[in-house]
Amino acid sequence: KIIPYNLxxxxxxxxxxxxxxxxxxxLKLSVPVAIWLWFYSCVCxxxxxxxxxxxxxxxxxxxxxxxxxxxxxxxxxxxxxxTAISFLVMRVDFFIIQYFKGAESVGYYSISVxxxxxxxxxxxxxxxxxxxxxxxxxxxxxxxxxxxxRITVAYSFLTSFIILLFVRPIxxxxxxxxxxxxxxxxxxxxxGIIALNSVSTMSFYICGKxxxxxxxxxxxxxxxxxxxxxxxxxxxxxxxxxxxIASSLAYMASAALCLNYFYYQQGIRLSDLLLLKSDDVLxxxxxxxxxxxxxx
Length: 296
Fold this sequence. Notes:
mainly alpha
């Protein structure tokens, strides 16, 4: 049910945007009102999701099941921890830059992150599509996940090369000459983001299959600790470039711990996970041709 459930997200975005504009621009209300509107939009989306679910399952009975509640709570806590730690790994450097260098440096660095994180979009989408396959324990899903992960790694290197070539004109055209200060930090962030992308799809699959295992959470926590420590060491001396180096090293450390878990606990060969194979290229070409023929 991809269409109705994506319409829910679209509805939430439209609802929130319209009411936000109405409250802040037309009524000139305060920021706390905007926060409440965000809350109400989430409530509406939740109710709409429940309504759609009830329609799909007519025999659904609303009753308390302690076993399901306990298990879903345990999983929910792990999901929350992984999400919160992942967010901090990616954003804690902003707070440290603000403390040491001020808002102007945060502005330059935010542009670096914006450009470098363009690499994340496709792997994140693919990972979320793979997650249900892990949960369903489908027989061929592990082979599919490995293939998607290998393609993701190749995509990351290709996209990084394009960014490497065009980062300067992008900064000049969209942000102006003053933001060229962000160019070097973009390039310093790329190795770390490539490293995270190299484990992204498989991490989603294993999280779906095993219910967000502790090893993946601990890998991200280690990355967070390394990121904070290195940022404190590097930012006073190297400014935003120091933050980019620290973040990149932290991402690589998290990816290395995930790869260690995949290899020793899951028995996944690193060559199967990371190195693009000729079959992958052939299948990818076939899928692209199929999509192009449909459009015609």
